[in-house]
Specification:
heme binding, Peroxidase, domain 2, hydrogen peroxide, mainly alpha, 43% helix, 12 helices, two-stranded antiparallel ribbon
């Protein structure tokens, strides 16, 4: 079985090693800043050792960046009217790891590596450190000069599959990308306030959301009492919140999706089929498919509306424009 896994990983490396997408290319900094990827990796690793939950934070940071004005580091800008101050972004974290990596890169190769690329590399390293797949990240993004808290159309925990599909399609992502990328919820946590409405008076019936399995409902009600602390953190994948694996998809199949938007993937025929494929029943193979597809979806997402060439800038400090 280990030999089979190695075979799949070799195929994966071959499939992603020569990726060039949206004007980006793997190894973009090989001559201008040869140690760039190693610096980002070691920085993420040091933060991860102190707190493994930072991996999910960095992955989400990159996702939220790409869904607003493309993958241009705009989510990193600080300020009351900046993107990261918008309501859907208030729970974002991992900024310190990005700033730390940028400080080291500026000392090593001033004005060369963009904050947008640091985000993309940190997201990859976070998945790898959480026992997930690795891949070659096409780089060469430049940083945007606009960051506004207005008009953000980010996916929400309340979204139906139809709405999720529309939001992903607007960024050039299809159903397969949608389910695959939502699979990132295999690591990380959410607040009780984002799903507690499902546990008690769902749609004012007095009952819980019927899509939640009964045994799991009791578990969630214990974790999130009706009048308890709404900011209490709960794992999105109850079984293995720090391990990047396919148990998230098994949970959705079994009525154990924490967020309503995740659980709804089981109710739509097209997305259910993809969830079922990842959840799988063939022991030993179910992880390979996700390990192979997630990097492809990430490379595609990481190329959304990127700025390259002379567009944008290379920020000196990730939290402010030059």
């Amino acid at each position: 079985m280990e030999a089979l896994r190695l075979f799949f990983m070799v195929i994966l490396v071959m499939a992603t090693s020569v990726q060039s997408q949206g004007g980006l290319k793997a190894g973009f900094y090989s001559s201008s800043c040869p140690g760039a990827e190693a610096i980002v990796r070691s920085t993420v690793e040091s933060h991860f050792k102190k707190d493994p939950t930072v991996a999910a934070g960095l992955l989400r940071l990159h996702f939220h960046d790409c869904f607003v004005q493309g993958c241009d580091g705009s989510v990193l800008i600080a300020g009351s009217s900046a993107e990261r101050s918008a309501l859907p972004n208030l729970g974002l974290r991992g900024f310190e790891a990005i700033d730390d990596a940028k400080t080291q890169l500026e000392a090593s190769c001033p004005g060369v590596v963009s904050c947008a690329d640091i985000l993309a590399l940190a997201a990859r390293d976070s998945v790898d450190l959480s026992d997930g797949p690795s891949w070659q990240v096409p780089t060469g993004r430049r940083d945007g000069r606009v960051s506004s808290s207005q008009g953000l159309n980010l996916p929400s925990p309340l979204d139906s599959v139809t709405v999720q599909r529309q939001k992903f399609a607007a960024k050039g992502l299809d159903d397969h990308d949608l389910v695959t990328l939502v699979g990132a919820h295999t690591i990380g946590q959410t607040d009780c306030q984002f799903f507690r409405y499902r546990l008690y008076n769902f749609t004012t019936t007095g009952n819980a959301d019927p899509s939640i399995s009964q045994s799991f409902l009791a578990q969630l009600q214990t974790l999130c009492p009706k009048d308890g602390d709404g900011t209490k953190r709960v794992a999105l994948d109850i079984d293995s919140q720090n391990k990047f694996d396919v148990s998230f998809f098994k949970n959705v199949r079994d009525g154990k999706g924490v967020l309503e938007s995740d659980q709804r993937l089981w109710e739509d025929a097209a997305t259910r089929n993809i969830v079922q494929n990842y959840a799988g029943t063939i022991r030993g193979l179910l992880g390979f498919r996700f390990d192979f597809e997630f990097p492809k979806a990430m490379i595609k997402m990481s190329s959304i509306e990127v700025k390259t060439g002379s567009d944008g800038e290379i920020r000196k400090i990730c939290s402010k424009f030059n």
